[in-house]
Amino acid sequence: MGDNRPIGVFDSGVGGLTVAGEIIKALPKEKLIYFGDTARVPYGSKSTETVNKFACEIAEFLRGFDVKAIVIACNTVSSNSYNVLSEKFDIPFIEVVSPGVNACLAATKNKKVGVIGTPATIASGAYEKKLKAADGEVEVYSKACPLFVPLVEDCLTEGDITALTVEMYLKELKELGIDSLILGCTHYPIMKESIGRFMGEGVNIVNPASLTARTLKKYLEDKSMTGDLEEDAYPEFYVSDLNREKFGEICRLAMGEVYEAKKISLENI
Amino acid sequence: MGDNRPIGVFDSGVGGLTVAGEIIKALPKEKLIYFGDTARVPYGSKSTETVNKFACEIAEFLRGFDVKAIVIACNTVSSNSYNVLSEKFDIPFIEVVSPGVNACLAATKNKKVGVIGTPATIASGAYEKKLKAADGEVEVYSKACPLFVPLVEDCLTEGDITALTVEMYLKELKELGIDSLILGCTHYPIMKESIGRFMGEGVNIVNPASLTARTLKKYLEDKSMTGDLEEDAYPEFYVSDLNREKFGEICRLAMGEVYEAKKISLENI
Question: What is the pTM of this model?
């Protein structure tokens, strides 16, 4: 009999739905519990101390479901809070930074790579440190793109404003001749087309969401913790603030499917 | 002797600094205590219930300073929570919607007016209802502009991206022939030039920040509650999350002067 405890997945908001979608595809016999902190999104512009505090509150909430593992589907939290969470909770955490780093190093040929993310993720230097620790020869160019999340949230994934904003942020990385670009924010895969079009065909766009799902799958198999629920065990979605229409729209953009979410307050747990 | 208790001013973040700046100018003998909920900004995309909860927590914090009045320097909170706050607290509240409405009605000649703001402010219909209640003949055209706040926060108050975004949101209002436009979000005065340039000289741009300061002044005078502190009583600024550099930059854009802020947690009061 399998380990049918659920898998927890959380993000600062709805961007992590790109990760949840990949997990549902890769592990259809697992039950997924998603939490998006939509009342306090975005985390990207907040201090490490505040991000740590919020992350611990969410892990506490997910622990209440007796989860067997928690996926940190948020680059800001992965970059800032992985160690704090792992020390505080007796639950395995899977973060999104390492899978992206490994895939990027496997893909690059000229050893010039780019990382884009929120100001907090870029300021943390998490991607850069891990890339350099794994390969001292790699050159890493990082760029914060604070307008990408608001563009996605306004469903502006194409068009002139998006194209100009992509150009403003990525022009320098393109001129530097990078051959791989890590999408270091879970919202960014939703505008992957616009980013890829600007960067050109020679540049690998590395999407940590699918790689994180693969890492989780391997972890559960290695530890004999896989579940064997019926296919399509219905996932549950919780948010700290709910705009039904918007949640549905981002669900569709991020996962190709629309789910319902329930609103809960972290302070009542 | 004057009533030298301080005046509380709060906003979801740093946008309310435009209002604080106008109050400091209009009432130099008053002490101002500002709170910006930067850990949970933006409120514009959150539900009324959540906005009410946050607003009550902040009013509780300001009450701790024995404030004589509280200015709600946030259109989202003014639109959603004024009644809740006034019922719950025995403190006079001054909100930013009514001053903008009155100035707009005084300015319009063709009785076609526009209102722009965050999705929550526009969805609340607060400006529209007050405008129509005061003058049944006025035609009101409203438009949510969710990208304006991120643009200001990224200091993009000018340039192609800003011009295109202004055009995208305001084109319809311009074509409809409005002659007055209320900036229904405290961040928007910071990009007033770009908005005014697109709308053209025939359109009055109504900035509720300065009008709110005037309303507060009149209220204190009417109730004999004015202070007589020495000129330039140094204001105090509190935020729930602090990025010193960004706070300074927005201070400069919004108030023409740079102040220091202290970080506090609302949960510790």
Answer: 0.84
